[in-house]
Amino acid sequence: MRVLAVTHGPSVGTGVFGEAIRAAGHELREWCVPLSPDAVPDGHDATIVLGGGMHADQEELHPWLLPELGFVAAEVERGRPLLGVCLGAQLIARAVGGRIVRAPAREVGWRDVELTDEGREDPVLSELPSSVEAFQWHHYTWELPAATELARGGGLTQAYRLDGVVRGVQFHPEVTAAQIERWIAEDPDDVEDEADLRAATRERIGAWNRLGRALCAAFLREAARTI
Protein backbone atom coordinates (compact mmCIF):
# COMPACT_ATOMS: atom_id res chain seq x y z
CA MET A 1 0.00 0.00 0.00
CA ARG A 2 1.24 3.51 -0.81
CA VAL A 3 0.81 5.90 2.14
CA LEU A 4 1.10 9.65 1.65
CA ALA A 5 2.26 11.75 4.63
CA VAL A 6 1.39 15.42 4.23
CA THR A 7 3.78 17.57 6.29
CA HIS A 8 4.14 21.27 6.99
CA GLY A 9 7.81 21.78 7.83
CA PRO A 10 10.99 19.96 8.85
CA SER A 11 10.19 19.73 12.59
CA VAL A 12 6.77 18.11 12.17
CA GLY A 13 7.58 14.97 10.22
CA THR A 14 6.17 11.47 10.42
CA GLY A 15 7.84 10.48 13.70
CA VAL A 16 6.92 6.96 14.81
CA PHE A 17 4.23 6.82 12.13
CA GLY A 18 6.99 6.57 9.53
CA GLU A 19 8.47 3.67 11.46
CA ALA A 20 5.09 1.90 11.61
CA ILE A 21 4.41 2.40 7.90
CA ARG A 22 7.75 0.93 6.88
CA ALA A 23 7.55 -1.87 9.47
CA ALA A 24 4.24 -2.97 7.94
CA GLY A 25 5.87 -3.21 4.52
CA HIS A 26 4.11 -0.20 2.98
CA GLU A 27 5.61 2.51 0.80
CA LEU A 28 5.88 5.92 2.49
CA ARG A 29 5.57 9.01 0.32
CA GLU A 30 5.90 12.53 1.72
CA TRP A 31 4.58 15.89 0.54
CA CYS A 32 5.83 18.98 2.38
CA VAL A 33 3.17 21.45 1.30
CA PRO A 34 4.96 24.75 2.10
CA LEU A 35 7.98 23.69 0.03
CA SER A 36 6.03 22.32 -2.95
CA PRO A 37 2.47 23.67 -2.82
CA ASP A 38 1.79 22.98 -6.50
CA ALA A 39 3.16 19.43 -6.52
CA VAL A 40 -0.18 17.85 -5.57
CA PRO A 41 0.42 14.09 -5.38
CA ASP A 42 -1.76 11.25 -6.57
CA GLY A 43 -1.52 7.49 -6.92
CA HIS A 44 -1.49 6.78 -3.19
CA ASP A 45 -3.88 4.56 -1.27
CA ALA A 46 -4.12 6.27 2.13
CA THR A 47 -3.25 9.71 3.50
CA ILE A 48 -2.01 11.06 6.83
CA VAL A 49 -2.09 14.85 7.29
CA LEU A 50 0.25 15.87 10.09
CA GLY A 51 0.68 18.95 12.27
CA GLY A 52 2.43 22.27 11.84
CA GLY A 53 3.40 25.46 13.62
CA MET A 54 0.80 27.45 11.71
CA HIS A 55 -2.95 27.59 12.40
CA ALA A 56 -5.70 26.29 10.15
CA ASP A 57 -7.16 29.76 9.50
CA GLN A 58 -3.91 31.53 8.60
CA GLU A 59 -4.17 31.44 4.81
CA GLU A 60 -3.20 35.13 4.60
CA LEU A 61 0.17 34.25 6.14
CA HIS A 62 0.37 30.85 4.44
CA PRO A 63 -1.38 31.01 1.04
CA TRP A 64 -0.71 27.32 0.40
CA LEU A 65 -3.31 26.43 3.06
CA LEU A 66 -6.22 27.04 0.66
CA PRO A 67 -4.95 24.64 -2.04
CA GLU A 68 -4.26 22.10 0.68
CA LEU A 69 -7.84 22.44 1.92
CA GLY A 70 -8.96 21.66 -1.63
CA PHE A 71 -6.72 18.60 -1.68
CA VAL A 72 -8.09 17.38 1.66
CA ALA A 73 -11.68 17.91 0.52
CA ALA A 74 -10.94 15.89 -2.61
CA GLU A 75 -9.46 13.05 -0.52
CA VAL A 76 -12.65 12.91 1.52
CA GLU A 77 -14.78 12.99 -1.63
CA ARG A 78 -12.79 10.09 -3.12
CA GLY A 79 -13.35 8.05 0.01
CA ARG A 80 -9.63 7.61 0.53
CA PRO A 81 -8.64 6.49 4.05
CA LEU A 82 -7.52 9.64 5.83
CA LEU A 83 -6.02 10.41 9.25
CA GLY A 84 -5.46 13.97 10.45
CA VAL A 85 -3.20 14.88 13.37
CA CYS A 86 -3.60 18.24 15.16
CA LEU A 87 -3.42 20.80 12.30
CA GLY A 88 -4.32 17.93 9.97
CA ALA A 89 -7.47 17.14 11.94
CA GLN A 90 -8.40 20.83 11.92
CA LEU A 91 -7.87 21.08 8.16
CA ILE A 92 -10.09 18.05 7.56
CA ALA A 93 -12.80 19.58 9.75
CA ARG A 94 -12.57 22.87 7.86
CA ALA A 95 -12.47 21.17 4.46
CA VAL A 96 -15.78 19.39 5.11
CA GLY A 97 -17.57 22.51 6.33
CA GLY A 98 -16.79 22.58 10.03
CA ARG A 99 -15.60 25.66 11.92
CA ILE A 100 -12.09 26.17 13.24
CA VAL A 101 -11.98 28.24 16.43
CA ARG A 102 -9.44 29.18 19.06
CA ALA A 103 -9.57 26.85 22.04
CA PRO A 104 -10.45 28.42 25.40
CA ALA A 105 -6.81 27.83 26.40
CA ARG A 106 -3.84 26.39 24.58
CA GLU A 107 -3.04 22.75 25.34
CA VAL A 108 0.69 22.13 25.43
CA GLY A 109 2.21 19.10 27.10
CA TRP A 110 0.79 15.90 28.56
CA ARG A 111 -2.98 16.10 29.03
CA ASP A 112 -5.63 13.58 30.06
CA VAL A 113 -7.74 12.19 27.21
CA GLU A 114 -10.71 9.83 27.62
CA LEU A 115 -12.11 7.64 24.86
CA THR A 116 -15.87 7.84 24.38
CA ASP A 117 -17.97 4.68 24.08
CA GLU A 118 -17.64 5.01 20.30
CA GLY A 119 -13.87 5.48 20.62
CA ARG A 120 -13.53 2.29 22.65
CA GLU A 121 -15.31 0.46 19.80
CA ASP A 122 -13.40 2.18 16.99
CA PRO A 123 -10.86 -0.15 15.32
CA VAL A 124 -8.21 2.60 15.29
CA LEU A 125 -8.71 4.66 18.46
CA SER A 126 -9.29 1.55 20.56
CA GLU A 127 -5.54 0.92 20.36
CA LEU A 128 -5.32 3.58 23.07
CA PRO A 129 -6.32 2.93 26.69
CA SER A 130 -9.72 4.26 27.71
CA SER A 131 -7.85 6.94 29.68
CA VAL A 132 -4.42 8.14 28.62
CA GLU A 133 -2.04 11.05 29.07
CA ALA A 134 -1.60 12.24 25.49
CA PHE A 135 0.94 14.71 24.16
CA GLN A 136 -0.64 17.90 22.86
CA TRP A 137 0.53 21.16 21.32
CA HIS A 138 -2.22 23.32 19.87
CA HIS A 139 -4.15 26.58 20.20
CA TYR A 140 -7.21 25.74 18.08
CA THR A 141 -10.08 23.30 18.06
CA TRP A 142 -12.99 22.53 15.74
CA GLU A 143 -16.76 22.54 15.63
CA LEU A 144 -17.86 19.56 13.56
CA PRO A 145 -21.44 18.57 14.44
CA ALA A 146 -21.73 15.72 11.92
CA ALA A 147 -18.73 13.82 13.29
CA THR A 148 -18.70 10.86 15.68
CA GLU A 149 -16.76 11.90 18.76
CA LEU A 150 -14.12 9.31 19.68
CA ALA A 151 -12.27 11.03 22.52
CA ARG A 152 -12.59 14.02 24.86
CA GLY A 153 -10.29 15.95 27.14
CA GLY A 154 -10.15 19.39 28.68
CA GLY A 155 -13.80 19.91 27.77
CA LEU A 156 -13.01 19.55 24.06
CA THR A 157 -13.37 16.88 21.39
CA GLN A 158 -9.97 15.22 21.00
CA ALA A 159 -10.75 12.74 18.21
CA TYR A 160 -13.51 12.17 15.65
CA ARG A 161 -14.58 9.88 12.81
CA LEU A 162 -16.32 10.76 9.55
CA ASP A 163 -17.86 8.22 7.16
CA GLY A 164 -15.87 5.31 8.55
CA VAL A 165 -12.58 6.00 6.73
CA VAL A 166 -11.74 9.54 7.94
CA ARG A 167 -10.39 10.20 11.43
CA GLY A 168 -8.86 13.18 13.17
CA VAL A 169 -6.99 13.41 16.45
CA GLN A 170 -6.05 16.62 18.23
CA PHE A 171 -3.14 15.07 20.13
CA HIS A 172 0.19 13.90 18.66
CA PRO A 173 0.52 10.09 18.61
CA GLU A 174 3.40 10.38 16.11
CA VAL A 175 5.67 12.65 18.15
CA THR A 176 9.17 11.68 19.27
CA ALA A 177 11.30 13.11 22.05
CA ALA A 178 13.55 14.76 19.47
CA GLN A 179 10.57 16.47 17.85
CA ILE A 180 9.37 17.78 21.20
CA GLU A 181 12.80 19.29 21.81
CA ARG A 182 12.65 21.07 18.44
CA TRP A 183 9.16 22.41 19.20
CA ILE A 184 10.34 23.77 22.55
CA ALA A 185 13.22 25.51 20.79
CA GLU A 186 10.92 26.95 18.11
CA ASP A 187 8.07 28.08 20.40
CA PRO A 188 9.42 28.52 23.94
CA ASP A 189 6.67 31.00 24.83
CA ASP A 190 4.09 28.20 24.48
CA VAL A 191 5.68 26.26 27.35
CA GLU A 192 4.96 27.18 30.95
CA ASP A 193 7.85 25.19 32.45
CA GLU A 194 10.41 23.63 30.11
CA ALA A 195 12.03 21.55 32.86
CA ASP A 196 8.68 20.03 33.88
CA LEU A 197 7.77 19.28 30.26
CA ARG A 198 11.10 17.57 29.63
CA ALA A 199 10.83 15.51 32.81
CA ALA A 200 7.29 14.43 31.98
CA THR A 201 8.38 13.56 28.45
CA ARG A 202 11.27 11.40 29.65
CA GLU A 203 8.84 9.51 31.87
CA ARG A 204 6.07 9.02 29.29
CA ILE A 205 7.51 9.06 25.79
CA GLY A 206 8.45 5.37 25.56
CA ALA A 207 4.95 4.12 26.31
CA TRP A 208 3.42 6.89 24.19
CA ASN A 209 5.55 5.91 21.19
CA ARG A 210 4.42 2.30 21.50
CA LEU A 211 0.81 3.47 21.47
CA GLY A 212 1.51 5.75 18.50
CA ARG A 213 2.95 2.90 16.46
CA ALA A 214 -0.02 0.71 17.37
CA LEU A 215 -2.53 3.42 16.42
CA CYS A 216 -0.84 3.97 13.07
CA ALA A 217 -0.70 0.23 12.41
CA ALA A 218 -4.44 -0.01 13.14
CA PHE A 219 -5.14 2.85 10.73
CA LEU A 220 -3.11 1.04 8.06
CA ARG A 221 -5.03 -2.18 8.62
CA GLU A 222 -8.33 -0.35 8.29
CA ALA A 223 -7.08 1.43 5.18
CA ALA A 224 -6.00 -1.83 3.56
CA ARG A 225 -9.38 -3.36 4.38
CA THR A 226 -11.36 -0.53 2.77
CA ILE A 227 -9.40 0.32 -0.39
Write a brief caption for the model.
The protein is built from 6 helices and 9 strands, in the order βαββαβαβαββββαα. The protein has 227 residues and is an alpha/beta fold. The protein has a 9-stranded mixed beta sheet, with helices on both faces.
Determine the fraction of residues in helical runs and give it as a percent range. 25-40%
In CATH, what is the homologous superfamily?
Class I glutamine amidotransferase (GATase) domain
Q: How many E-type strands?
A: 9
From the N-terminal CA to the C-terminal CA, the straight-line distance is 9 Å
What is the CATH topology descriptor?
A: Rossmann fold
Features:
227 residues; Rossmann fold; globular; alpha/beta
Present the secondary structure layout.
Elements: E1 2-7, H1 15-23, E2 27-32, E3 46-49, H2 65-78, E4 82-85, H3 87-95, E5 99-115, H4 117-121, E6 131-143, E7 148-153, E8 156-162, E9 166-169, H5 177-186, H6 194-226
Parallel strand pairs: 1-2, 1-3, 3-4, 4-9
Antiparallel strand pairs: 5-6, 5-7, 7-8, 8-9
Helix pairs in contact: 1-6, 2-3, 5-6
How does this structure look, described?
The protein has 227 residues and is α/β, with parallel strands linked by helices. The chain has a single domain (2-226), classed as 3-Layer(aba) Sandwich (Rossmann fold), CATH 3.40.50.880. Helices cover 35% and strands 30% of the residues. It has helices spanning 15-23, 65-78, 87-95, 117-121, 177-186, 194-226; strands spanning 2-7, 27-32, 46-49, 82-85, 99-115, 131-143, 148-153, 156-162, 166-169. Strands 2-1-3-4-9-8-7-5-6 form a 9-stranded mixed sheet, with helices on both faces. Strand 8 and strand 9 form a beta hairpin. Helix 1 runs parallel beside helix 6 (194-226) and helix 2 (65-78) packs across helix 3. The model has no long low-confidence stretch (mean pLDDT 96).
